[in-house]
Amino acid sequence: MRNVVDKLVAPSCVAEILPLIAAWLIFEHSIKTFIHKGLTFFRGFSERLPSFPQWLWVKMWISFVRLAVGQAV
Fold it and tell me: What is the domain count for the chain?
């Protein structure tokens, strides 16, 4: 068991894992920001155009995100 712990905290292992963790945190933050800004954008449209219900704008945004994610994959 001690060998496993020693390997996990070895400088080379930490040097490999830290950039991956940092990249994931940056990616996660950018996705959350993208979704938040998009929902705010569509919410602004729904307030200016009251004939469209807000759930429709949210549904359009979700479709857009799915399309963007599908294109990225």
Answer: 1
Write the DSSP assignment of 4-68 as a string of letters: HHHHHTSHHHHHHHHHHHHHHHHHHHHHHHHHHHHHHHHHHHHHH-TTS-HHHHHHHHHHHHHHH
Domain hosting 25: range is 2-72
pTM as predicted: 0.37
Could you tell me the CA-to-CA distances from 2 to 9, 12, 15, 25, 28 in Å, in that order?
11, 17, 20, 30, 33
For the stretch 24-58, pLDDT in tens is 888 887 777 777 777 777 666 656 655 666 677 77
In whole angstroms, give the CA distance from residue 5 to residue 2.
5
Distance CA 34, CA 26 (A): 12
